[in-house]
Amino acid sequence: MKSQVKQWLESGTIDIFLGMKMVDGHPLPHAFTLRNISDLEDLVPGTVRYPLEKFAAELAAENPDARIGLAARECTQRALNVLSLWNQAPTDRIETIKINCCPSPLKEHAVCSYLDPPEAGLFKKHFGIDNGADPEAVARFEPRERFSRWMYEFQKCIKCYGCRNICPVCFCEDCSLEHEDLIGTGQLPPEAPIFHLVRAVHMAGRCIDCGLCEEACPADIPLRLLYRKVNAVVDDLFDYRAGEGEQPPPFNIIGEKPTLAPKPMENGSACPKR
Amino acid sequence: MECKFVPSVCSYCGVGCGVLFKVVDGKLTGTLPLKTHPVNEGRLCVKGWNLHDFVNSYLRLKSPLIRAFGRFIKTDWEEAIKITSDRFKDIIRQHGPDSVGVLVSAKMSNEENYLAQKFARAAIGTNNVDHCARL
């Protein structure tokens, strides 16, 4: 990886490379350029994940000529795909070096709740929802019990907006979660479950299941599980899986009458270019 | 185009969560939780997430202000400290040293807290030293 990045920077293929650098035992995101090329010595795949693709999209938007390199895990690549389909990342100016997250708990991989499901405590198992649970297993609870279990999870929320802030595919300039008419702003606790369900609806067909939201959640709400559920609905109705292929997402096309019937898909995005 | 990621500690409360500042072209543009920090393990509260906002806020005070004639007037540190100490001396002379209290903070270092209590006991002459968490 080091020699590839060095060659890219020296040949001018890219101007800047976003990867992880070891600093005093902490893997931190770092921007490698020709000027600090000696830093490449400390370039590591890193065992923790930061939304590098989000930084890349922001840098690309501010610097229309810049070419950006990126250390990309599978989730990073899915996020780049979604950002590109929504007109938020110019993939022709973004080069990636792929890092594999081996789907085995035995081999070293990044911190990821999919590969290392967290163990839920007793109270959470009895009254809440296990973050590592299967969506099917959660669906088997009786409706009343399921509702009370989800409400137990939602009422823990401290409204830090961390799930939205860290999300690589959250890019809207005006966020519904800060809209006075939709959500009671400036009050704690947030309105449960509407606060969480508004975000869940916005994740439908967009969430790439990276799990960064769950990692960033101080209240340990099973957000990844919730968004997997909404994505399963999108998959059932529209046969669409976010982060795969070149098809624009089904919610990108605004029809005259909103219906649940599958819409014709056209190329091009309804979202304005950043 | 220059982009840097600077690890730091949140300046709000005494917990001291690890944060990572995103600096683009010399301007602080974002805050992230430090994933490997032993205190917060990649999580932050809403204040920590918005640390970069107050640094760039236009409401931020950049020089000391003195309230005179009902208005705030800009001044330098030397004059501001002189006026403050004169007013303290006046108050202590008129009402005694116990009319003054010193509040310290969990966000300050041990040494700064030591200096603050020393200042209260030796310079002002009061035992009124308390902590911001008990306010």
Provide key terms for this protein.
heterodimer; A: about 270 residues; alpha/beta; 2 domains; 5-stranded mixed β-sheet; 10 helices; B: about 140 residues; alpha+beta; N-terminal domain of TfIIb; 3-stranded antiparallel β-sheet; two-stranded antiparallel ribbon; extended
What is the terminal separation of chain B in angstroms?
45 Å
- Please state the overall shape of chain A, judged from the principal axes of the Cα atoms: globular
Main pleated sheet of chain A? 5 strands, mixed
Number of strands of chain B: 7
**What CATH architecture of the domain at 3-55 in chain B do you see?**
Single Sheet
Output the radius of gyration of chain A. 20 Å
Mean pLDDT of chain B: 92
Total discrete domains of chain A: 2
Q: Structural class of the secondary elements of chain A? A: alpha/beta
Order of helix and strand elements from N to C terminus of chain A: HEEEHEHEHHHHHHH
CATH fold-level assignment of the domain at 3-55 in chain B = N-terminal domain of TfIIb
Biggest β-sheet strands, sense, barrel of chain B: 3 strands, antiparallel
Number of helices of chain A: 10
Given this structure, which CATH class of the domain at 3-55 in chain B is correct? Mainly Beta
Percentage of β-strand residues of chain A: 5-15%
Q: Sketch the topology of chain B as an H/E string, one letter per element.
A: EEEHHEEHEHE
Q: Using DSSP, what is the number of strands of chain A?
A: 5
